[in-house]
Amino acid sequence: MLIKVPSVANLGLESIKVDVEVNLANRGLPGFEIVGLPDKAVDESKERVRAAISSSGIDFPAKKITVNLAPADIPKEGSLYDLPIAIGILSSILQFTVPDKSLFFGELSLDGSLRHTKGALLMALFAREAGFQDLYVPKDSANEAGAIKGVKVFPVENLFQLASHFLKRKNIEPAVYQENSDNLPAPAEFDMKEILGQEQAKRAMEIAAAGGHNIIMVGSPGSGKTMLARALPGILPPLNEKESLEVTKIYSAAGSIPPGGSLITYRQFRAPHHTASPVGLIGGGTRPHPGEVSLAHRGVLFLDEFNEFPRQVMEAMRQPLEDGYLTISRSKEIVRYPADFMLVASANPCPCGYLNHPKKNCVCTPRQVRKYQKRISGPILDRIDLHITVQPVDATEFSDNQKNSELLESSETIRQRVILARKRQEERFEGESIQSNAQMKNSHIKKYCKLAKEVEQLLRQASMKFQLSARSYMKMIKVARTIADLEGAPEITVSHMAEVLQYRPKIYESI
Amino acid sequence: MGVYPCQNSITMENVITIKDKRYPELLGKIGKDAPEKIYYKGNWDSEIFKNCLAVVGSRRLTSYGRKITEQLVTEIASAGVTIVSGFMYGGDEAAHKAAAEAGGRTIAVMPCGIDMIHPEYQEELYNKILENKGLIISEYEGKFPPANWTYPRRNRIVAGLSKAVLIVEAGLNSGTLITAEFAKKFGRKIFAVPGPLTSEVSKGTAQLIKEGAEVVTEARDILKDYNISLTKPNLAKPSLNIEGIEQEIINQLQKEPLEADNLARILGMSVSKIGTTLSLMQLKGFINQEGGKYYVD
């Protein structure tokens, strides 16, 4: 007897329909075989299914069982085929029909219960597109799948419950989607008002957050670079609906959505250490997995000690920094992951860290400093819009009034301004494929950032004096647009452009 | 230390021996310390050795030291005095650069063979010295690599060539003080620039002053020893039309170099407004920036 149970295979963010064909043959020696390019996790499914069925109080049939995952030439991975295989076997021995237009997905535990399984959101998206009405998923993954409207999601607790449902003894009620409320305020470690001084750096952070610009901070150890970066999530605008879905898809594919979790509504802050492997950062592996750059999509990728990162990793970031996505090519598959992140980098000015420090003496030779600074290549620096130097703050320089954190601007106040500026950008780019100023290509700049004569003159003069590259020239205009948006000004003025010059690339000017 | 052959090497061996008439007179007077042979690059003109002043400073020259070097050397070199130094980065480099930029002549004494440029990234300065009719000299031939012991040996030539030595900044136990020691030994006059006592690189100069070095506050202090009277050029800057915040910023920066953050705090203004003003002032050339701090020229 042959039974077909529909399920899916996920390739990157794409899903392909997979038919789980289960055949129970009376002839031949009893056995259990899975074919159709299963990986180790799929192959081990045999043992889980056998134990789960027995634990549910049903005798495991002593027949020759063959499971085929069709199409047979696509590699299958993961534990999601446990449920469709078990349902195929059960429907054969308990004599119920598997309903049409239903998809099955989930990992089994040996006691017959279903465990949270990665990829529920991708599955639900596929179900909607391919016209499946019902979706049977583990209870813990139901809220994730439920974020997609138009598909009925049945939360399954265990195998016995699902069998009862099909035998019409006790029905499972479709899940009601619950928005996660604990997601909303972005979790920042510090509030901006806790940071004393650093006015210019804070201002640069605000501009970066408002326009989605990349930023690099250069400063001595202890000057507060990391603190500033960690405070950044608190001033980021929330994700809009479309962005939220994009981000959740990546997290679903990576299996990073917790049980019971749902859409990600705040911007992610990823801070990989510099010893992370290239594959971990960029993504890849034999089955291409999203890397940190993709997990930071629409959010922040914070690279502390930027010049300690291997050159290979830094250069690999050029494509996502420019295009907003990353193509991972492997012999068996080519996967494209979105990676449109805001890069926040921090670096020391020299190997000892104390170049230009007001109190300590630097012990590096100019040669060492040069070598150290050259570790960040020109093309990468060119793709960073805002460059700031962060000097250590001497608390004794501040009056009590200035030290009072209640009088300093809080992250929330800044965040409101950032949200307003983002709204202005979204309105401007309505109908375009971009949402923020940082994403503007040259054609957009021509269209949306017409410069008045005196502004252009100022920029020309500055690019001669500070030897700016053509790319930097364009970056300046983008950042000036963001400053104008923060102010609510319709046109870029001389003062906007002059402020941008404060954040020009200057790492090599010090020597 | 990396060294590499210089690009514009001259194939003909340029060498002056101690027996040569053209051998610098002052250098010959230092007795057994005088080098047997001097290899050189550039045009050997005995005139260049007539009025020499050694200008040496710490490798870790501060922005203050750099500014003072530029000021003094520009005036002294324009007055026709040859500036002698050791081509090292920091103080030496600042002295050579200021002299060449002022159109004056300068002699770089190398710690390595004559066919080398050391440090190699100062090739631009090397060429600039030659372009301005300066000299590159060394007692070592060919591609002799610099070593720990060649630096102090080089300093004796720097001191030996010069009537006087100007120490801009020096740490205690530094190479700069070695040059001063040689100058003392050879009976040459020592000038020292006073600096803040909190600075590591002012401790050496402070010690020299204590021991009797002459304090320098302006170029005239040195030039009078060379019997050159400086007709003070009208240095009064053309009155700039500066008003309001720009004037306030300049007033603050004249006291000490500051960062944008400090200025915003002192003047009680938003940092974006300060940033805007600073950028415009920098473009107009009123102020300059180094290591994150702004200063007035």
UniProtKB/TrEMBL annotation, chain A:
<dbReference type="InterPro" id="IPR003593">
    <property type="entry name" value="AAA+_ATPase"/>
</dbReference>
<keyword id="KW-0067">ATP-binding</keyword>
<protein>
    <submittedName>
        <fullName>Magnesium chelatase</fullName>
    </submittedName>
</protein>
<dbReference type="InterPro" id="IPR045006">
    <property type="entry name" value="CHLI-like"/>
</dbReference>
<dbReference type="InterPro" id="IPR001208">
    <property type="entry name" value="MCM_dom"/>
</dbReference>
<dbReference type="Pfam" id="PF13335">
    <property type="entry name" value="Mg_chelatase_C"/>
</dbReference>
<dbReference type="GO" id="GO:0003677">
    <property type="term" value="F:DNA binding"/>
</dbReference>
<dbReference type="InterPro" id="IPR027417">
    <property type="entry name" value="P-loop_NTPase"/>
</dbReference>
<dbReference type="Pfam" id="PF13541">
    <property type="entry name" value="ChlI"/>
</dbReference>
<dbReference type="InterPro" id="IPR025158">
    <property type="entry name" value="Mg_chelat-rel_C"/>
</dbReference>
<dbReference type="InterPro" id="IPR014721">
    <property type="entry name" value="Ribsml_uS5_D2-typ_fold_subgr"/>
</dbReference>
<feature type="domain" description="AAA+ ATPase">
    <location>
        <begin position="211"/>
        <end position="394"/>
    </location>
</feature>
<dbReference type="InterPro" id="IPR000523">
    <property type="entry name" value="Mg_chelatse_chII-like_cat_dom"/>
</dbReference>
<dbReference type="InterPro" id="IPR004482">
    <property type="entry name" value="Mg_chelat-rel"/>
</dbReference>
<dbReference type="InterPro" id="IPR020568">
    <property type="entry name" value="Ribosomal_Su5_D2-typ_SF"/>
</dbReference>
<dbReference type="GO" id="GO:0005524">
    <property type="term" value="F:ATP binding"/>
</dbReference>
<keyword id="KW-0547">Nucleotide-binding</keyword>
<comment type="similarity">
    <text>Belongs to the Mg-chelatase subunits D/I family. ComM subfamily.</text>
</comment>
<dbReference type="Pfam" id="PF01078">
    <property type="entry name" value="Mg_chelatase"/>
</dbReference>
